[in-house]
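Posting this for the archive.
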Amino acid sequence: MVDNEILIMAAFLGSGLLTYVIIPGLLVVWDRVLDHMEGSNGNKP
């Protein structure tokens, strides 16, 4: 039973760390995509 609790805690902590890494990564990628779209439209000098 202790092994199952450790696995559950490990999965929970792992998913938490992944969200802290993936969410900022997605924000950076989305910001770059918006900048590229604005640049292709010619709005930026």
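The two ends are 63 Å apart (CA to CA). The helical segments are 2-41.
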